[in-house]
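Re: [help] complex structure
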Amino acid sequence: MKRLRPLLREAFPDGDAAAMGPMTTADDVVGWDSMAHVGLMAAIEDAFKIQFEPEEITAFANLGELMAMIARKVDGG
Amino acid sequence: MQPDVVDLFLARAGERPDAPAIVTSAASISYGALERRVRALAVVFAQLPSPKVLIALPQSIDAYAAMLASGLAGGFYTPLNMASPAEKMRRIAAQLEPDVVVGAPELIETLAIPGARMIDPTALDETRRLEGAGARHDLAYVLFTSGSTGEPKGVMIPRTALAHYADWLGTLGIGPGDRVAQHANVAFDLSVFDIYGALCRGAALHPLDVEGDRLMPARFIKRHGITVWSSTPSAVSVMMRARQVTQANLASIRLFNFCGEPLLKEHLDALFAAVPGAAVQNTYGPTEATVSMTKLGLEAQSYADHCATSVALGDAIDGMEIVLAGGPSADEGEIVIVGPQLARGYWRDPQKTAKSFRAVSAQDPRIGYFTGDWAWRRGGDLFFRERVDFQVKVRGHRVELDEVAAAIRECGYPVACVFKRGEALAAIVEAQDAFDEAALRARLQAKLELHAIPERIVAVAELALNENGKLDRGRAAALMEERITGRNG
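Output below.
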């Protein structure tokens, strides 16, 4: 979450990144629409040096699942 | 008379039955196998005379097969956007009163259509097929668009209009070996470019049927070696946001086609920087004139000459004509379209039909479609100015909302929506960094008359797109109102 938070802050300038946690969903965050989602996923790929598969780009229900997916990909790669 | 799209498809299937016709994320199908599927669906449709076929399927092989099959069976089709709210789908179904509904059984229950024959294509018997050339209805499809009142309007497209458009598609050099992406929803008529552009010419159709691919389309292009791409310009904005407009991603494309909303110079800057050798064309047209009816070819060396607040629309294609009506000169006015691609009018709505399809002028009795789009010619190029209904009066002065939005864009906010709010204007823009409203308003004083400067300008990180990939003005207005009156960003 520590490495993700600055990326969330950048992707959702209107959202309260400090208040986001593993249970946070897209619906909870002001400004999390498809364009912001694309920006976030691209920023995560850059920061963590990973690449998402098309199915993975939308395959999480909350930030906790997103973090687990990032961890899996970082370990796997 | 141009050949019918169904006959063109059957000819291609006869020539190269083993060539790939459709490649989805789940399956792919050859021209020969697709023809068998089309004929098997057609034999079921043809049990009813002139069947009205409602297609309630996502971008799957059977959705495209059902379009062709409805034509072969002497009927026509209406595609549904499966991502739209159930209530909207029910309203369209209620208006159309289809004879046949193709879709998953559970969805058919949701739609609740009395009297319609339900067909689950997964249970189709492929051994029974409609052989021969079949029959033809005079309509090809009825496509429902949002009406200003909220009730969907069904645009009736004759087969001859579609044939005329498909004939123009044939001039684009698409053929066997081409891989044509299918980005637009099948209920949005921009998809007609891809579907018939590919299947009438022996190319492979590649639908973006996974949400992740729609969010990162440049990667999809790279993975499939797409050679022809057609979409609204907003898809390029999405690629730009993902930082994926690169040579590595887009190198396979030889033709980009844009339609559906104003193309901006920013889009072309990004594309030509990545793939300077690609051909890009801008097109314009309402659903009522069968997808598009202008074309402007753009090249890296000269595209800037055709850019004003947006990119020029181009000239009418062969057989079609644009008249600018109701303006101060022959070079400015409402776009009125004349020619064989015009719709037959609106489904069961003679009043709305008569209002929009009427004599061009007292001197010109030809029937034209009055688009509500205002345009002007500058230096030989035709430019979109604004919707006629986006013209407002502010304290007695006539103000073009598009002009205000263009001024805001020039100040470094490429995405902006402007609205009349009370007695003044207000705007909402996309801004990534800290946003200084007062500074922007001060800069606008150099560009606009005082009454045209929005009293309030609020910023959000993103403005939403609607289901057709255009900026959603309704949601932008609601968001703006929320920012101005309530929560403060």
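Chain A has one domain: 5-76.
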